[in-house]
Amino acid sequence: MKYFSENDIELFTIELLEKLGYEYTDAVVISPEGEKPERNSFEDVLLIQKLKSAVDRINPTVPAEARADAIKQIQRISSPDLTASNETFHRMLTEGINVRYQKDGNERGDLVWLIDFQNPENNEFTVVNQFTVTSTSSVTGTVIKRPDVILFINGIPLVVIELKNAVDEDATIKSAFNQIQTYKQTIPQLFTYNGFIIISDGLEAKAGTISSDYSRFMAWKSIDGKKEASHLVSQLEVLIKGMLNKKTLLDLIRHFIVFEKSKKEDIESNLTFIQTTKKLAGYHQYFAVNKAVERTLQAASQNGNRKGGVIWHTQGSGKSLTMVFYTGKVVLALDNPTVVVITDRNDLDDQLFDTFADSKQLLRQEPVQAENREHLKELLKV
After folding, report:
1. At what angle do helices 246-255 and 319-333 cross, to 10 degrees?
2. At 334, is the secondary structure helix, strand, or coil?
3. CA torsion sign, 39 to 16 to 290 to 367?
4. Under DSSP, is residue 134 helix (H, G, I), strand (E, B) or coil?
5. How far apart are CA 79 and CA 90, in angstroms?
6. Model pTM greater than 0.85?
7. CB-based contacts of 145, cutoff 8 Å, min separation 6
8. CB distance 51 to 73 below 8 Å
9. Lower Cβ count inside 10 Å, N or C end of the chain?
């Protein structure tokens, strides 16, 4: 790659995204003081005009006041815990926002969608660089930060990309990760709406979530899922083409993110608390699940042979989550089928059930663990 400075890497990233159909927008133009302001202050992170336009376009049958209420609901999300706020928004984004309104003298409930997941081209994909965000507190005063690149869908900042210069020994991909941690502390409102984060030094590139530690940021090694990309192509280019194209990005946001909850004990206080971890599928899980769902639909079709297949996993590659992602997607694709998971060890059965129970938001229902054969027969009668 011929780009070396951080600015060159930034321009290279924007160039690749524009080729994927993103519209580049100058951060200064849409700033509160710009020619076409999209927010009232630098503390705001939603591009409100783009968001309102998209909500109106995607939800034409919902009354205007209900659409406005949906936008107010996501603007009001506030929790001392950033992951909790992020999870609340993710549910609204992927399940729709509940609204109520009067129609023909009766109160009616409905859902407002922020993104058209069925029709990618019905959404507005925007890339902005050096997007100024501020926050003010009595402790720190006013803090000003400018993340390198942000991807907006319908005015929502869903992907934050932090870039460093590979030539500079002091500016590694790890320092990009550290910069993200600083942003989370100083401008947390940006990450309430975050889908996932990308860090890169122009050569290496990895993706993770707001709760991922550095070791959990992973490379995306394939563009098409058929073969791993050549080592002659930078990881950043592979990740952008393979992960950030419109179809894959929407698919990842809707079907390949889970919030796992686990019990943790504070040694000093001896108190138990629930810790939430946001997890994003790896490239191998993403492509395997989509191929498995495709084959399942073929097998279950009118002329299908009713035969599925096998996904081979190495140890520690995330097979439990692969099964969760597959189940969550096939539940929608086949109109809520019954899925039975069979294991050959009690400890594995408990472990797998815990993973499924932690992911009930993605499954859209509460999983049940069969105690014995008779119990299983009773469950299958439902």
Report:
1. 100
2. coil
3. negative
4. strand
5. 14
6. yes
7. 132, 133, 134, 182, 183, 186, 187
8. no
9. C
